[in-house]
Fold:
Amino acid sequence: VQVVESGGGLVRAGESLRLSCAASGIIFSFNGMAWYRQAPGNQRELVARITGSRSTNYADSVKGRFTISRENAKNTVTLQMNSLKPEDTAVYYCNGWRFKGGGEVEDYWGQGTQVTVSS
Structure:
């Protein structure tokens, strides 16, 4: 299984970036997909999450600026990031999960893509 992110880079405050993620090597559809981020010295935090029914959740810090979307059949997810701020600087990770029998959750992670926002 491979989960690969793309679209990171260096932008100025107020600009936009679009992150993409695609999973390959699997025959099932994820129950949900998400984006997390981790800044130096901080713990990894949830940025946005979307389920198979396209129900979404966002961190308070990105509400109104970021939008998550997915194509269920293709196990792809994107994160449109607008009005970026220096505090959005972090490594962004793609996550896909599925529910297994007995309540167990199986997670799949990408390697991360760097987003840097200059002031």
Summary: The mean pLDDT is 95.
